[in-house]
Specification:
Shape: globular
Order of helices and strands: EHHEEEEEHEHEHHHHEE
Helix content: 25-40%
Number of helices: 8
Distance between the termini: 12 Å
Protein name: Class III extradiol dioxygenase subunit B-like domain-containing protein
Organism: Streptomyces virens
Strand order of the largest sheet: 3-7-2-8-1-10-9
Strand content: 15-25%
Radius of gyration: 17 Å
Largest sheet: 7 strands, mixed
Structural class: alpha/beta
Number of strands: 10
Length: about 260
Amino acid sequence: MLVAAAVCPCPPLLVPEVAAGAAPELDTARAACTDALGVLAAARPDLLVVVGPADTAGPEAYPQGTPGSFHGFGVGLDVRLGADVPPEAGVRPGSEVPHGADRGTPAGPALPYGLAVGAWLLGRTGWADAPVEGRGVGEHLTAERCAEEGRAVAARADRVALLVMGDASACRTLKAPGYLDERAAPFDAEIARALGAADTGALLGLDTGLARDLRVSGRAPWQVLAGAAAGNASLGGTLLYEDAPYGVGYLVATWS
């Protein structure tokens, strides 16, 4: 059963090494993400599942220890998903992995960027409270399949927590990645309300076509969350952060 969830944005710019000189601009968002992960730890889960956007429809499974990197963003930084790293690597479980330290890496694909940001957040906060798995879901996965995946994830253990990675629209300003779209602000406002109220019905009812037009990477992950929460009506939501730096909607929320 789902006992807690944290919703965080997943721009690579959340990683200071990627943001470089602009890193301080997202300090407030990083602090909110840290607070959200604290709610997950306080729930004492048996399993943490990180759900984030993927290039394929999915769902794709990523076991503990799956590597990811930010090399595509010009940064020689590697991470692993909740990995037990060999002691000689000099890093704690879930934290950043020195480039080339690939011993014990599971076979299979590397983490998509959204899950890599999630792995970075877990390493930054020193997550060691429960085993970690990853799920990647893409924009072409239907709401029904997202909900089905959420129910399956919630059944993975007696006490399951989710770290849900995803951004709202990328069309909030003229300089946004998707340019300005007047539909973006009200769409994001409804997402913020639904996440803050733990409104599973509203999340499952999001317009997938509009979400695609507005370049919303979080639609499918949020609908997985809604499906996972279906068996626990006692969950309440809290919105911790809402802003649109660089014209992209970033939201942090907790359900517990």
